[in-house]
């Protein structure tokens, strides 16, 4: 009886073991057309099915799981809808990154404490992301594993993102309810604490969202839209959404996040997780997760370990530019204003720093464009080593004559691959580039130089989003294949071995494989990698806090370069990361052929992208070319080109031939409607051909004015032709630059002003062209500026009116002892680049004549590298000087007696950049301009908004104030070549 029972139990045990092995092995395979096939899911998506689940869950119902909806190849629109929520999320990040630091600083938080506030990012990245990953993996809600957390995270993000920019107003109201003065130290401290707490909660909410492999492009687009919105003067257009730039930007980001997340969650179907059965752990714990993480660190794959070391070093340096770029740019922007007026009121400081934040956001926009362009273009040049795919030989066995993969001719983009320029080396070079640019940060003193540094950071950021994930996912994929192959080998053994001893041995082998599988689980490896990113950010915050504590200056005090120093320190750690990249091996360390043979029972060959990447190459050609055309048409010509920013004339009606032939026409926005390839085909007829045949040699008069560019979704040419169009388009700016001459860059001829009161429309919060009006006395605008046709040069037929600028007894600006009335160009045009000509005409009368006993600085730049002067100059002999003088670096280069009622027509010829110089053109009355002073070498510098049209009069004892009138007309700036006719080109 006993023996019989024992025998029966043993038999049952064997049967159970066999069933258990079969169940486990089936979990590692998907079935398609009845044949076992390795899982084709992304290697970054690990299975959440427990290894100890009952067999019933190992073979789900065919009508829900086993249909191929979730395994079939998805369309591009499906991928876009799946990841579009990332775009909205990134807009929220862009809002926080670009405005968070300036806003906290505006509340009174010091930079050293600010760095501690941003420790919220690494804190939430270390704990929140892994915990949310655990919870979502174990979720069994019928409408999806991820949707509840996506929706919950989005809702929390919207709440705290809306609260953050309004925290000052909210806390002011609450403190007043309790009888507390919000302007006291305690009230300000409470506001700062609440704002910092909202930052922490906002980071927690943002970290509940997870990114997948398609997200890099959507992320780049979200960055661009977010930073572009941050650069626009939002209060001018969307005043109903808030009072400040940050408040309106937060509202826009919340609207975008809400709409994109709802679109993604409502339209994308997620597999029902209840079909997976109950999770292995009913109460997943964060402590258990980290125990698993630290245990797996000892068995981390070598490639992944090296990548984590690189990331640890690199992220110490990457952290400061991510969070302090806008503040870095803003500090450079406000320097000249603070040096000129160190006693600004708090309201003026707030206006100045808000404008500086928008200027800093432009740098983030440039960085986003650079990152997206790198993400799209650079892969075509990288020699593939980590994207090898396994191609089973079974297909070749069935069709031995099919050699299309090996015999096809290389496409043009495949020829672009640079031998030896591997992903590892590209990643290393991007770190070196970053370190070099960060080392230069402490020596940069201009916004344009800082923009270049941040733009280069975009290249490194694109590689950071690509290289480590590609290397890790390749290793995970191959190790996953090896483990599946080992499990399948066990499955074949168990059918032959039925003895107790054999099954005991198989149990031991199973435990070994399972332990190796757990140490290589995607979630565990990604958790370790995430810690390698988050942990160094703690170090970065401490380093930044120390640097700021030692070198920062109070808000509103010029000369603060503490952030630039922090950037340079970060560059040192990134340079170490570049050295550590050398430890990473090129190529795949796992024997792909052996894995495939063990798993599939046949031979296999590993083909690189060079052999099997035809589809990838074709899509790359279309994507790169279409994105380039769209960007060039919509952004380069219409936005970046300075000559198209303020174009108001009738050039758009000219023919293409006229536009290319006339040396006086500018690069107008309408030029972007020309077909790029048609222009270049006129010069190189064989450059590209349409599928239908050669379109022939086109003359300029035949160039179409309709939109002929190829946009995304409209590609109609072959890949080779498309690629040639892309290459040809790169030459277009140089070609067009040789075809254009002088161009009106900025128009300040008062033609758009009805009266001088229109100048009051301008403010720091509402920067409307053509002039900034803030340097004046305490009286109304009519006391200092008046417009009339009587105030212009009568020989100027283009200007409808001129301006009379008046200095009276109230014309003291901001408590200074100098009388001033000055108008500054309000423009984003490039009036400080290349060769430009600053035109204006000036005159005085006997009535209210300017004093010959005082120094008058007229139409000067902030650095006074060139200007006009009138009257007695300090250090001169005598008490009076009746001469009008042209000055370069405080040296007189030309002078004439300034007689009444004589119009002096003047143009400063300025060469900015390398070999900078200033020349002088002059005439009187209606005579054409002539160069009277050849260009003189000097240090010409300008930020594009620091030329002062008007007068600054220095005080002088013994000579009391008297009313003085100055008359100006014909004010404009042009580039490349000069217009000598009085009044300049027509509008």
TrEMBL record:
InterPro entries in UniProt: GH131_N (IPR041524), MFS_trans_sf (IPR036259)
Source species, domain of life: Eukaryota
Residues annotated as transmembrane: 76-94, 114-136, 148-166, 186-206, 218-234, 246-268, 450-472, 531-551, 563-582
Pfam families referenced in this protein's UniProt entry, alphabetically: GH131_N, MFS_2
Keywords, in A-Z order: Membrane, Transmembrane, Transmembrane helix
Region (Disordered): 25-58
Statement: the UniProt record of this protein carries the keyword Transmembrane: yes
Domain Glycoside hydrolase 131 catalytic N-terminal intervals: 744-977
Protein name: Glycoside hydrolase 131 catalytic N-terminal domain-containing protein
Species: Monosporascus ibericus
């Amino acid at each position: 009886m006993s023996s019989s029972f024992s025998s029966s139990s043993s038999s049952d045990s064997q049967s159970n073991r066999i069933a258990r092995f079969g169940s486990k092995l089936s979990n590692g395979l998907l079935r398609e057309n009845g044949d076992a096939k390795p899982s084709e899911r992304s290697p970054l998506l690990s299975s959440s099915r427990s290894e100890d689940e009952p067999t019933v869950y190992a073979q789900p119902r065919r009508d829900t799981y086993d249909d191929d909806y979730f395994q079939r190849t998805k369309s591009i629109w499906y991928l876009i809808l799946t990841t579009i929520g990332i775009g909205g999320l990134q807009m929220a990040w862009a809002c926080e990154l670009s405005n968070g630091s300036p806003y906290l600083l505006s509340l009174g938080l010091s930079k050293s404490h600010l760095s501690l506030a941003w420790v919220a990012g690494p804190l939430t990245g270390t704990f929140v992301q892994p915990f949310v990953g655990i919870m979502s993996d174990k979720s069994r809600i019928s409408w999806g594993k991820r949707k509840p957390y996506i929706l919950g995270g989005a809702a929390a993000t919207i709440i705290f993102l809306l609260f953050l920019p309004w925290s000052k107003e909210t806390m002011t109201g609450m403190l007043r309810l309790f009888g507390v003065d919000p302007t006291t130290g305690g009230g300000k401290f409470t506001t700062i604490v609440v704002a910092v707490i909202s930052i922490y909660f906002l980071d927690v909410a943002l970290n509940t969202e997870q990114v997948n492999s398609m997200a890099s492009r959507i992320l780049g687009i979200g960055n661009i839209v977010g930073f572009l919105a941050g650069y626009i003067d939002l209060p001018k257009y969307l005043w109903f959404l808030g009072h400040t730039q940050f408040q309106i930007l937060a509202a826009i980001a919340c609207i975008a996040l809400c709409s994109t997340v709802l679109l993604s969650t409502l339209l994308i179907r997620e597999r029902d997780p209840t079909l997976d059965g109950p999770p292995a752990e009913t109460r997943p714990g964060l402590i258990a997760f980290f125990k698993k993480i630290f245990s797996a660190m000892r068995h981390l794959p070598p490639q992944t370990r090296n990548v984590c070391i690189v990331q640890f070093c690199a992220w110490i340096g990457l952290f400061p530019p991510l969070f302090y770029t806008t503040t870095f740019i803003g500090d450079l922007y406000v320097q000249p204003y603070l040096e000129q007026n160190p006693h600004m009121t708090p309201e003026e400081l707030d206006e100045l720093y808000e404008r500086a934040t928008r200027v800093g956001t432009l740098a983030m926009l440039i960085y986003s464009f650079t990152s997206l362009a790198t993400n799209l273009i650079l892969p075509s040049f990288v020699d593939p080593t980590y994207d090898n795919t396994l191609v089973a030989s079974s297909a070749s066995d069935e069709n031995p004559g099919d050699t299309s993969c090996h015999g096809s001719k290389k496409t043009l983009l495949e020829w672009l691959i640079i031998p030896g320029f591997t992903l590892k080396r590209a990643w290393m070079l991007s770190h070196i580039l970053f370190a070099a640019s960060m080392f230069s940060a402490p020596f940069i003193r201009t916004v344009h130089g800082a923009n270049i540094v941040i733009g280069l950071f975009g290249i490194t950021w694109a590689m950071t989003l690509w290289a480590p994930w590609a290397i890790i996912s390749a290793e995970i994929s191959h190790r996953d294949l090896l483990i599946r192959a080992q499990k399948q080998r066990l499955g074949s053994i168990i059918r032959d071995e039925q003895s107790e001893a054999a099954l005991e041995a198989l149990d031991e082998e199973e435990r070994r494989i399972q332990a190796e599988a757990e140490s290589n689980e995607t979630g565990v490896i990604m958790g370790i990698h995430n810690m390698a990113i988050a942990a160094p950010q703690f170090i970065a915050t401490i380093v930044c806090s120390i640097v700021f504590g030692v070198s920062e200056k109070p808000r509103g005090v010029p000369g603060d370069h503490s952030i630039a120093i922090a950037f340079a320190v970060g560059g040192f750690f990134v340079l170490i990361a570049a050295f550590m990249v050398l430890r990473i091996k090129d190529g795949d360390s796992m024997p792909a052929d052996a894995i495939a043979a063990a798993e599939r029972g046949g031979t296999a060959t590993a083909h690189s992208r060079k052999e099997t990447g035809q589809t990838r190459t074709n899509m790359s050609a279309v994507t790169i070319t279409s994105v380039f055309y769209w960007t060039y048409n919509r952004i380069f010509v219409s936005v970046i080109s300075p000559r198209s920013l303020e174009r108001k004339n009738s050039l758009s009606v000219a023919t293409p031939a006229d536009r290319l032939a006339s040396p006086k026409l500018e690069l107008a926005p309408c030029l972007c409607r020309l077909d790029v390839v048609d222009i270049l085909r006129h010069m190189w007829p064989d450059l590209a051909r349409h599928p239908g045949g050669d379109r022939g040699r086109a003359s300029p008069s035949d160039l179409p004015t309709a939109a002929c560019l190829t946009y995304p979704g409209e590609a109609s040419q072959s890949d080779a032709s498309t690629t040639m169009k892309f290459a040809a388009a790169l030459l277009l700016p140089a070609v067009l630059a040789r075809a254009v001459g002088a161009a009106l860059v900025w128009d300040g001829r008062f033609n758009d002003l009805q009266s001088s009161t229109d100048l009051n429309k301008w403010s720091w919060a509402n920067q409307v062209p053509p002039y900034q009006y803030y340097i004046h006395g305490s009286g109304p605008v009519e006391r200092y500026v008046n417009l009339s046709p009587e105030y212009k040069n009568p020989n100027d037929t283009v200007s409808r009116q001129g301006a009379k600028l008046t200095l009276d007894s109230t014309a003291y600006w901001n408590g200074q002892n100098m009388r001033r009335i000055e108008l500054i160009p309000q423009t984003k045009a490039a009036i400080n680049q290349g060769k430009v000509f600053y035109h204006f005409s000036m005159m005085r009368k006997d009535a209210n004549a300017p004093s010959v006993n005082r120094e008058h600085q007229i139409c000067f730049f902030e650095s006074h590298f060139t200007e006009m002067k009138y009257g007695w100059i300090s250090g001169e002999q005598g008490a009076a000087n009746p001469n009008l003088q042209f000055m370069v670096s405080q040296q007189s280069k030309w002078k004439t007696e300034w007689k009444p009622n004589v119009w002096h027509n003047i143009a400063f010829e300025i060469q900015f950049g390398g070999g900078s110089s200033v020349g002088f053109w002059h005439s009187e009355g209606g005579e054409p301009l002539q160069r009277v002073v050849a260009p003189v070498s000097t240090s010409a510098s300008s930020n594009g908004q620091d030329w002062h049209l008007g007068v600054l009069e220095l005080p002088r004892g013994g000579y009391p104030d008297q009313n003085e009138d100055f008359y100006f007309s014909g004010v404009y700036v042009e580039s490349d070549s000069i217009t000598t006719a009085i009044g300049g080109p027509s509008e």
